[in-house]
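Suppose a colleague, Dr. K., hands you the sequence of a protein chain of 44 amino acids and asks what its three-dimensional shape might be. Before reaching for any lab equipment, you can write down a predicted structure in token form. Begin with the sequence itself:
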Amino acid sequence: MSTLESVIWHVLGYAAMPVIVLSGFVGVAAVSLWLLSLGKDKQL
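The predicted structure, expressed as tokens, is then:
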């Protein structure tokens, strides 16, 4: 494996965990807001 490939795989490896965690938070927040909006009174 070349140095460039090694650097790319290290960057991908270190970037994967924060991306997974942050996307999980965003997904849970989106589902929570959607569920809360279902119970909201729609009349003004």
